[in-house]
Specification:
The protein has about 120 residues and is an alpha+beta fold. It is elongated, with a radius of gyration of 19 Å.
Length: about 120
């Protein structure tokens, strides 16, 4: 944290404290995502997810940043168009004001859901 903060402050001396704090958070998040190969793991999960759901089975995915959310949204939309999912969330579900106040981390959370199509619907 200190090294990233010092490097950013030196490279961009006019960054305000809030902007510097956000830049440090995003930099560390990007490092974590790359080191853990998180996008590859999520993509693999999204590819195999329909095969692990029974017809009519439901899945809910909770994401915490736009890179994750975009992948989940696009996978659910593609699955819906292909007839793999009978229904998907039209809109993302976000935390209410009271929930966010009680748990600050909830502000970043987005929930999307999908319902596996019945077998007869997929054969069309």
């Amino acid at each position: 944290d200190r090294l990233v903060r010092a490097g950013l402050a030196k490279a961009h001396p006019r960054l305000t404290k809030p902007d510097l704090k956000m830049s440090v958070r995003r930099t560390l998040q990007a490092i974590r995502i790359a080191v853990n190969d998180e996008f590859s793991a999520l993509d693999a999960l999204l590819r195999w997810l329909p095969t692990s759901l029974a017809p009519g089975g439901r899945v809910a995915m909770l994401t915490f940043h736009s890179g994750e959310d975009r992948r989940v949204k696009k996978a659910f939309q593609a699955g819906h168009r292909a007839g793999v999912y009978a229904d998907i969330a039209d809109e993302v579900i976000r935390s209410r004001k009271e929930e966010t106040f009680a748990n600050r981390r909830a502000s970043a959370a987005k929930l999307r859901w999908a319902v596996r199509a019945p077998l007869e619907q997929r054969s069309r």
